[in-house]
Protein backbone atom coordinates (compact mmCIF):
# COMPACT_ATOMS: atom_id res chain seq x y z
CA UNK A 1 0.00 0.00 0.00
CA UNK A 2 1.34 3.42 -1.01
CA UNK A 3 0.10 6.31 1.10
CA UNK A 4 2.28 9.20 -0.11
CA UNK A 5 5.10 9.15 -2.60
CA UNK A 6 7.80 10.94 -4.48
CA UNK A 7 9.11 9.76 -7.84
CA UNK A 8 12.09 11.15 -9.72
CA UNK A 9 13.78 10.45 -13.03
CA UNK A 10 15.83 12.07 -15.74
CA UNK A 11 14.72 12.06 -19.37
CA UNK A 12 16.11 13.13 -22.74
CA UNK A 13 14.06 13.22 -25.94
CA UNK A 14 13.53 15.05 -29.21
CA UNK A 15 9.81 14.23 -29.38
CA UNK A 16 7.42 16.97 -30.44
CA UNK A 17 4.24 15.10 -29.57
CA UNK A 18 2.36 13.84 -26.52
CA UNK A 19 4.15 11.14 -24.55
CA UNK A 20 4.08 9.29 -21.25
CA UNK A 21 7.08 9.31 -18.96
CA UNK A 22 5.94 7.21 -15.99
CA UNK A 23 2.93 4.94 -15.45
CA UNK A 24 1.92 3.03 -12.32
CA UNK A 25 -1.19 0.85 -12.61
CA UNK A 26 -3.00 -1.61 -10.37
CA UNK A 27 -5.65 -4.16 -11.30
CA UNK A 28 -8.36 -1.75 -10.11
CA UNK A 29 -6.99 1.45 -11.70
CA UNK A 30 -4.85 1.81 -14.83
CA UNK A 31 -3.94 5.41 -13.94
CA UNK A 32 -3.05 5.15 -10.26
CA UNK A 33 -0.11 7.43 -11.02
CA UNK A 34 0.83 8.79 -14.44
CA UNK A 35 3.15 11.53 -15.73
CA UNK A 36 2.22 12.74 -19.21
CA UNK A 37 3.63 15.48 -21.47
CA UNK A 38 0.85 17.26 -23.40
CA UNK A 39 2.63 18.80 -26.38
CA UNK A 40 -0.36 20.80 -27.70
CA UNK A 41 -0.83 22.61 -24.37
CA UNK A 42 2.89 22.56 -23.44
CA UNK A 43 2.11 21.15 -20.01
CA UNK A 44 3.19 18.34 -17.77
CA UNK A 45 0.24 16.40 -16.40
CA UNK A 46 0.25 14.42 -13.20
CA UNK A 47 -2.56 11.91 -12.75
CA UNK A 48 -3.14 10.45 -9.29
CA UNK A 49 -5.97 7.92 -9.10
CA UNK A 50 -7.41 9.34 -12.37
CA UNK A 51 -7.34 12.95 -11.05
CA UNK A 52 -5.34 15.20 -13.37
CA UNK A 53 -3.33 18.25 -12.37
CA UNK A 54 -1.70 20.38 -15.06
CA UNK A 55 1.58 22.27 -14.85
CA UNK A 56 2.45 24.88 -17.45
CA UNK A 57 5.58 26.97 -17.87
CA UNK A 58 8.01 24.04 -17.86
CA UNK A 59 10.96 24.69 -20.18
CA UNK A 60 10.78 21.17 -21.65
CA UNK A 61 13.37 21.59 -24.41
CA UNK A 62 14.24 18.76 -26.79
CA UNK A 63 17.69 17.17 -26.79
CA UNK A 64 18.45 18.10 -23.19
CA UNK A 65 18.44 16.10 -19.98
CA UNK A 66 15.62 17.09 -17.64
CA UNK A 67 15.07 16.06 -14.03
CA UNK A 68 11.46 15.62 -12.99
CA UNK A 69 10.28 14.86 -9.48
CA UNK A 70 6.61 14.55 -8.55
CA UNK A 71 5.25 14.40 -5.00
CA UNK A 72 1.79 13.44 -3.72
CA UNK A 73 0.67 13.71 -0.11
CA UNK A 74 -2.40 11.50 0.38
CA UNK A 75 -3.39 13.26 3.60
CA UNK A 76 -3.59 16.76 2.10
CA UNK A 77 -4.10 15.63 -1.50
CA UNK A 78 -1.42 18.04 -2.70
CA UNK A 79 0.68 17.29 -5.78
CA UNK A 80 3.83 19.18 -6.69
CA UNK A 81 6.21 18.88 -9.63
CA UNK A 82 9.87 19.83 -9.45
CA UNK A 83 11.22 20.45 -12.95
CA UNK A 84 15.01 20.76 -13.26
CA UNK A 85 15.18 21.69 -9.58
CA UNK A 86 12.47 24.34 -9.68
CA UNK A 87 9.27 23.67 -7.72
CA UNK A 88 5.82 24.27 -9.15
CA UNK A 89 2.92 25.45 -7.06
CA UNK A 90 1.17 22.72 -5.09
CA UNK A 91 -2.19 21.67 -6.52
CA UNK A 92 -5.00 19.66 -4.99
CA UNK A 93 -5.62 16.25 -6.52
CA UNK A 94 -7.20 13.66 -4.22
CA UNK A 95 -6.89 13.20 -0.46
CA UNK A 96 -7.64 10.43 2.00
CA UNK A 97 -6.80 7.79 -0.55
CA UNK A 98 -4.09 5.16 -0.91
CA UNK A 99 -2.75 3.12 -3.79
CA UNK A 100 -3.56 -0.52 -3.04
CA UNK A 101 -2.86 -3.72 -4.87
CA UNK A 102 0.05 -5.01 -6.87
CA UNK A 103 1.47 -2.16 -8.94
CA UNK A 104 2.99 -2.54 -12.38
CA UNK A 105 5.29 0.32 -13.30
CA UNK A 106 6.03 1.05 -16.94
CA UNK A 107 8.44 3.72 -18.17
CA UNK A 108 7.53 5.48 -21.41
CA UNK A 109 4.07 3.98 -22.01
CA UNK A 110 0.63 4.59 -20.53
CA UNK A 111 -1.14 1.49 -19.28
CA UNK A 112 -4.76 1.51 -20.39
CA UNK A 113 -4.99 -1.83 -18.60
CA UNK A 114 -2.93 -3.34 -15.77
CA UNK A 115 0.38 -4.06 -17.55
CA UNK A 116 -0.90 -3.44 -21.09
CA UNK A 117 -3.24 -1.57 -23.41
CA UNK A 118 -0.44 0.55 -24.85
CA UNK A 119 -0.90 3.30 -27.46
CA UNK A 120 2.14 3.84 -29.70
CA UNK A 121 1.10 7.48 -30.19
CA UNK A 122 1.74 8.13 -26.48
CA UNK A 123 5.04 6.27 -26.27
CA UNK A 124 8.22 7.91 -25.06
CA UNK A 125 11.20 7.73 -27.40
CA UNK A 126 14.48 8.84 -25.90
CA UNK A 127 16.63 8.12 -22.87
CA UNK A 128 15.74 7.74 -19.20
CA UNK A 129 17.98 7.40 -16.20
CA UNK A 130 18.10 7.52 -12.42
CA UNK A 131 14.49 6.44 -11.84
CA UNK A 132 13.64 6.36 -8.14
CA UNK A 133 10.43 6.23 -6.13
CA UNK A 134 9.96 6.70 -2.39
CA UNK A 135 6.93 5.89 -0.25
CA UNK A 136 7.30 9.30 1.37
CA UNK A 137 7.81 12.87 0.18
CA UNK A 138 11.39 14.07 -0.08
CA UNK A 139 12.36 17.39 1.46
CA UNK A 140 13.28 20.24 -0.91
CA UNK A 141 16.96 19.71 0.01
CA UNK A 142 16.75 15.98 -0.83
CA UNK A 143 15.13 16.78 -4.17
CA UNK A 144 17.85 19.32 -4.95
CA UNK A 145 20.54 16.77 -4.06
CA UNK A 146 18.94 14.35 -6.54
CA UNK A 147 18.76 17.02 -9.26
CA UNK A 148 22.39 18.06 -8.67
CA UNK A 149 23.64 14.43 -8.77
CA UNK A 150 24.77 14.73 -5.15
CA UNK A 151 24.50 12.14 -2.41
CA UNK A 152 20.83 11.22 -1.90
CA UNK A 153 18.95 8.29 -0.41
CA UNK A 154 17.95 5.88 -3.20
CA UNK A 155 14.26 5.15 -3.63
CA UNK A 156 12.75 2.51 -1.36
CA UNK A 157 10.00 1.60 -3.86
CA UNK A 158 12.16 1.90 -7.01
CA UNK A 159 15.95 2.12 -6.89
CA UNK A 160 17.54 2.59 -10.33
CA UNK A 161 20.76 0.90 -9.19
CA UNK A 162 18.94 -2.23 -8.01
CA UNK A 163 16.11 -2.36 -10.52
CA UNK A 164 14.62 -5.63 -11.70
CA UNK A 165 13.05 -5.10 -15.09
CA UNK A 166 11.71 -6.71 -18.22
CA UNK A 167 12.55 -5.34 -21.67
CA UNK A 168 9.70 -5.28 -24.18
CA UNK A 169 10.28 -4.36 -27.84
CA UNK A 170 13.09 -1.95 -28.79
CA UNK A 171 14.95 -0.92 -25.63
CA UNK A 172 18.67 -0.32 -25.37
CA UNK A 173 20.36 -0.53 -21.98
CA UNK A 174 23.71 1.21 -21.80
CA UNK A 175 25.94 2.80 -19.23
CA UNK A 176 25.11 6.37 -18.38
CA UNK A 177 27.09 9.03 -20.22
CA UNK A 178 28.97 11.16 -17.72
CA UNK A 179 29.70 14.78 -18.57
CA UNK A 180 33.40 15.60 -18.62
CA UNK A 181 34.59 18.42 -16.35
From TrEMBL:
Keywords linked to the UniProt accession: Calcium, Disulfide bond, Metal-binding, Secreted, Signal
GO molecular function, one term: metal ion binding
Cofactor note: Binds 2 calcium ions per subunit.
SUPFAM superfamilies for the chain: Concanavalin A-like lectins/glucanases
Keyword flag Signal: yes
Top-rank taxon, per record: Eukaryota
GO cellular component: extracellular region
Database matches in Pfam families: Pentaxin
Required cofactor names: Ca(2+)
Keyword Isomerase: no
Record's subcellular location: Secreted
Subunit description: Homopentamer. Pentaxin (or pentraxin) have a discoid arrangement of 5 non-covalently bound subunits.
Similarity comment: Belongs to the pentraxin family.
Name of the protein in question: Pentraxin family member
